[in-house]
Amino acid sequence: MTNKPADDLTSYFSQGDALEVPDGTCLFRPGDDGHAFLIVESGSVRVEQTNSAGRTVVLYRVEAGESCVLTTTCLLSGVPYSGYGYAEGIVSAVAISADRFRKLLGSDPRFRELVFRGFASRVGELTNVIDELLEHRTDLRLARWLANRKSSDLQMTQQELAQELGTAREVVSRSLKAFETKGWIQLGRGTIKILDASALRSHGDAS
User: Fold this and answer.
1) What is the pTM of this model?
2) Which sequence spans correspond to the domains of the chain?
3) Which residue stretches of 58-137 are H helix?
4) Choosing a second label site near 129 at 20 to 30 A (CA), which of 50, 89, 123, 148?
5) In this model, does residue 134 exceed pLDDT 80?
């Protein structure tokens, strides 16, 4: 989600240093210390977590005008990162140093409001992720995820989709095959074409 310019953090670009990284760059990983508050200008950052068994789940994405709740947590608490952040596309951002970030929090009410509003919103998203993971019917979660895509043509592998949902590729593969049999999607090599979003949505909403 991208906020309107008047309501996001883009007016604070002048407070930091410009940063540009190529697609796929790992911006942070578990154990890294938080050194700067990043505000994304263009591109997006995929934030994910991997457990001891190697299973990965995407927590959220940081879009233009937004900041990362893990980064905010690190800067406020001094606790290292617990997840990974990867650039999706070329990411342009502004890095506000930790000292400058703390000074802005203490002296600028608007900055403080925007930071904590974004923090609260992201915590709500993380709660939804947890709720989804606790729901064992992966086929329902997958159907809802597919039905909510803006494009009907998805360029992604089944492994990437499994990471989005925090489950095993084999589980996703079985569900996708079942959806294809019903005529709701069409599978290709690294592609998924959504043929009946309404049917997927109805299935996903089933109790």
Assistant:
1) 0.62
2) 5-134, 138-204
3) 69-77, 98-107, 109-134
4) 89
5) no
